[in-house]
Design goal:
globular; 7-stranded mixed beta sheet; binds ligand KE4; Aspartate Aminotransferase, domain 2; Aspartate Aminotransferase, domain 1; 14 helices; single chain; 4-stranded mixed beta sheet; alpha/beta; 2 domains
């Protein structure tokens, strides 16, 4: 029997679904998940020893590729000094300073261990800072699995959330309103109806949980104006886009499209941990002063700012600041998506692509979708055939049509060419 299958059978005895995060189980695409033994640069290897060009990169963190020497060295030397102390260390100050240097809207940060924890804390902070309960999110955006955020779009604006998950009591999601992404009219109406009660609006500026859908600049600008007018806070969930779509994250991009644009609270994860468990949320000094031990909003964590994780994150952030890093990464990613588009056109397959920095998406439809409902009209069977065609050719794409893809600095021109050759066959 195939070693992946044997491991999967064994895993399912002791771990629900055989995985520690649902998307890894391949349930959306079918087939047997690959059990990865090691990573090396742009590649990962499965239990059968097969090599894959990796376009997941741990869902974003591995922007330098697997096993970057400088990062590995930083982690090993930090680990030799100690894994965790439960006391402040200089390195978490250095990491905070690095994030603040690169993200002008952030004056102070709090480090935590996962994007979920960062997003959950950002919501609590927004509610504590405003004294309000209502929050707005958008259909298709994922902000981690905190109860208040596991909510599906209600029908219209009056009905507040019904949860997408068992185990979340209605009371917990009654304050969460889910609107359509890129729908300016709905956000206008929501503020007209509930403006005085809204603590925050939370958004993925480029929605990587709908594969790759950009928030249109006028939409972002209108949310910014309405939040300012009504005293609500604008939360940018940059867990996926942060330091991935550009050195100054998505807010750097929107700062160029919308003069003076800044979110109120920013959430980071993935890249800032370089593959180790580390995330963060940040805001102005005034907003962050609401957090314990200064203010009344409680938030804590045993491994927050972990000394080994901060070493990994810092080494990663230092590498991506090197001259030309994002130009090269952006070029490589563009080469991939433009090549995929060309191959799809050659084969008469309706296809559209988009990319920013080291993050990309593609859709088996002619025009780029602007919201979740449109994304979900994708022909799932067709996507799954493409996914498996690529996987069998040694190209590991996201095992779900609503997930984004990631290119690392380790991906070479030859890797892109090999990917396009595989796509030519798979699309045929
Ligand atoms: P984590 O708790 O998984 O570290 O972060 C949650 C999160 C928050 N915000 C955004 C925009 C995110 O994309 C995520 C996590 N992303 C998923 C991929 N779609 C992680 C993969 C998984 O769930 O296994």
């Amino acid at each position: 029997m195939d070693r992946n299958q044997a491991l999967f059978d064994r895993a399912r005895h002791v771990i629900p679904g055989g995985v520690n995060s649902p998307v890894r189980a391949f349930r959306a695409v079918g087939g047997t998940p690959r059990f990865i033994t090691r990573g090396e640069g742009a590649y990962i290897f499965d239990a059968e020893g097969r090599r894959y060009i990796d376009y997941i990169g741990s869902w974003g963190p591995m922007i330098l590729g697997h096993g970057h020497p400088a990062v590995l060295e930083a982690v090993l030397s930090a680990a030799r000094e100690g894994f965790s102390f439960g006391a402040p260390t200089e390195r978490e100050v250095e990491l905070a300073e690095e994030i603040i240097k690169l993200v002008p809207s952030v004056e102070q940060v709090r480090l935590v261990s996962s994007g979920t924890e960062a997003g959950m804390s950002a919501i609590r902070l927004a509610r504590g800072a405003t004294g309000r309960s209502k929050i707005i999110k958008f259909d298709g955006c994922y902000h981690g699995h905190a109860d208040a955020l596991l909510v599906k779009a209600g029908s219209g604006l009056a009905t507040f959330g019904t949860s997408t998950s068992a185990g979340v009591p209605p009371e917990v999601v009654q304050h969460t309103l889910v609107l359509e992404y890129n729908n300016v009219q709905q956000i206008e109406e929501a503020f007209a109806l509930h403006g005085a009660e809204i603590a925050c609006v939370m958004i993925e500026p480029i929605a990587g949980n709908m594969n790759f859908v950009r928030a249109q600049a006028p939409f972002v600008q209108r949310i910014r104006e309405l939040c300012t007018k009504h005293g609500a806070l604008f939360v940018f969930d940059e867990v996926m886009t942060g330091f991935r779509v550009g050195l100054h994250s998505a807010q750097g991009l929107y700062g160029r499209l919308i003069p003076g644009f800044k979110p109120d609270i920013s959430v980071f994860g993935k890249v800032i941990g370089g593959g180790m468990p580390l995330a963060a949320f940040g805001a102005s000094r005034d907003i962050m002063a609401q957090l314990a031990p200064l203010g009344g909003v409680y938030q804590a964590g045993t491994l927050s700012g972990n000394p080994v994780a901060t070493a990994c994150g810092l080494a990663t952030l230092r590498e991506i600041q090197k001259p030309g890093f994002f130009e090269a990464l952006g070029q490589r990613t563009r080469q991939l998506v433009d090549g995929l588009q060309a191959v799809a056109n050659e084969n008469g397959v309706p296809f559209s692509v988009d990319a920013e920095g080291g993050m990309f998406g593609f859709f088996l439809m002619k025009d780029l979708p602007q919201n979740y409902a449109t994304v979900m009209t994708t022909d799932k069977e067709r996507f799954n055939r493409f996914f498996h065609g690529m996987l069998n050719a040694g190209v590991y794409l996201a095992p779900a049509l609503y997930e984004a893809g990631f290119v690392s600095a380790a991906h070479s021109e030859a890797d892109i060419d090999a990917t396009l050759a595989a796509a030519r066959l798979a699309l045929k």
